[in-house]
Design a protein that fits this description.
Length: 503
């Protein structure tokens, strides 16, 4: 029988979740759902010094907004809880002890001052100090000290850490689902701390203990954890546990230049690097978020899916359920993925077009309500008229405000171009034509006005441009007769009269 697929997203609540973290969560979610598995959220909060209040709530809110809910996690017990490492503290020490007993870990009593000293001496000789097989016998630990000495220190409360004893002269063959085989010479590994003097496990120990106890089958995480893979695999081996499969997702790179995408890139180029707005509780700084900037979660998810993955076809627009169907780790690249803010806007525009007009209309209604605008105009028609040109829902207001509010100013350039000496006379005449029309539908008004223009043997622009200025205030906007029909006969005539008076 094959095991049920279980994956986890394991963020540390040290601040807002970067979109790179959301991408990791998304790939875990897609992999779980594609394989009818379980997506677990585990909060890795063992480092109390870096804990930021509100960060966990931010993480769960962000996942909810993105529509990638976890099946198990804090407040959603699936039998493998608790899901916050701070609530699992009591679990870890026994495994560190087990590693000491079976000779794979040891107590180290070195003070930070003495380690600093060693570092300095090495640096002065152009070397790097690494705590491992090379020097562990000369340092202050249970491998170099007598058993009696060690016991005495432990009994007298001498502060200690527990370090992993990396094996010597071995070539590890690791496997990554995305990168394939990776060979590591164990002699380059350092003896990482597993258990700290404050009685808390380090990330490495807590992470593998929890992945084991939570029966995680696939660890899908960012490339920055690749250097820890050898240690993690060795820890599984030393505890006699079966290791999960590993997949390290490619880095997300800056839009221009080299290196990882950072908040600074976003600030400089004016795009968010966080899913939701974040108000830093310490500095009171506000960082922008995709949600508050008007992006649809569907667009953000689609954009993130393409950061490192592709379906192998030309298709770029995907709904979440299509992504679930298509997703596979074998189509994730190992090369870094360049973040492209313009492409993100393109995804946003495309997903907005795909939304049901009624959904856009109700969002638009809310915008009008917030602006205290009461109208009898058919909003579905208004939305259909301009939707194509909108990237964000908020754009609808910029594209249609003149339908709800009669222009009070006229674009000077447009007036200069289109408002001539004979314009007032022509416009007066036009109001009389319009006044006689009883069926004020766009098509009918268009036919009547156009045939009147033709009959006068003047250029269309001589009427259409000033009429546009009168109705819109500038030379922009959708079909003129659609606007006239929407605002109605009286208002159209009124606007023409206003324009004659002002220009
Ligand atoms: N807590 C780690 C982080 O913040 C998790 C790494 C992992 O997934 O193993 O990214």
């Amino acid at each position: 029988m094959t095991k049920d697929i279980r994956v986890r997203f394991a963020p540390s609540p040290t601040g807002p979740l970067h979109i790179g973290g959301v991408r990791t969560a998304l790939f875990n979610y897609l992999f779980a759902k594609k394989n009818k598995g379980t997506f677990v959220l585990r909060i890795e909060d063992t480092d109390q010094k870096r804990y930021v209040p509100g960060a966990e709530k931010y993480i769960t809110d962000a996942l909810e907004w993105c529509n990638i809910p976890y099946d198990e996690g804090p407040e959603k017990d699936g039998g493998f809880g608790p899901y916050r490492q701070s609530e699992r503290k009591h679990l870890y020490k026994q495994y560190a002890d087990q590693l000491i007993e079976n000779g794979n870990a040891y107590y180290a009593f070195d003070t930070s001052e003495s380690l600093d000293e060693h570092r300095k001496i090495h640096e002065a000789n152009g070397k790097t100090f690494i705590y491992n097989w090379n020097n562990r016998e000369e340092l202050n630990n249970s491998l170099s000290l007598s058993e009696k000495d060690v016991n005495q220190r432990l009994q007298s409360g001498n502060p200690y850490v527990i370090r992993f004893k990396s094996p010597q002269n071995e070539t590890l063959i690791l496997n990554d689902e995305i990168r394939g085989e990776i060979k590591i010479d164990t002699n380059i590994l350092d003896d990482k701390i597993l258990f700290k003097s404050d009685g808390m496990p380090t990330y490495h120990l807590a992470n593998i203990v929890d992945d084991h106890l939570m029966e995680i089958t696939h660890v899908i995480r960012g490339e920055e954890w690749l250097p820890s893979l050898a240690l993690h695999v060795l820890l599984y081996r030393s505890l006699d546990w079966e290791a999960p499969s590993f997949a390290h997702l490619p880095l997300i790179l800056k839009p221009v230049g080299k290196g990882k995408l950072s908040k600074r890139d976003g600030d400089k180029m004016g795009f968010p690097v966080f899913p939701l707005q974040w108000n830093d509780p310490k500095t009171n700084d506000i960082s922008s978020g995709y949600r508050e900037d008007g992006y649809l979660p569907e667009a953000v998810i689609n954009m993130l899916a393409f950061l490192g993955w592709n379906p192998g076809t030309e298709q770029e627009l995907f709904s979440l359920s299509e992504l679930i169907n298509e997703f596979s780790l074998s189509r994730v690249n190992k090369a870094g993925a360049k973040f492209d803010p313009e492409k993100t806007k393109w995804f946003q525009q495309q997903h907005l077009q795909n939304l049901d007009t009624s959904i856009i209309t109700s969002a638009f209604e809310k915008i009008l309500n917030d602006k205290n605008i009461q109208t009898t105009v058919d909003l579905n028609t208004v939305v259909s008229m301009v939707k194509e040109r909108a990237v964000f829902i908020d754009d609808l207001w910029d594209l249609t405000h003149f339908i709800f509010i009669s222009p009070s100013e006229y674009d000077a350039k447009a007036v200069k171009k289109a408002w001539k000496d004979d314009t007032p006379t022509l416009m007066h005449e036009l109001t009389r034509i319009l006044d006689d029309i009883s069926d004020f539908s766009s098509d009918n008004v268009s036919t009547i006005v156009k045939s009147w223009i033709k009959g006068k043997e003047i250029g269309f622009g001589k009427i259409m441009m000033p009429l546009r200025i009168a109705l819109v205030g500038s030379l922009q906007g959708p079909d003129l007769f659609d606007i006239a029909s929407l605002v109605g006969k009286e208002e159209t005539i009124q606007r023409i009269e206003n324009a004659i008076e002002v220009n």
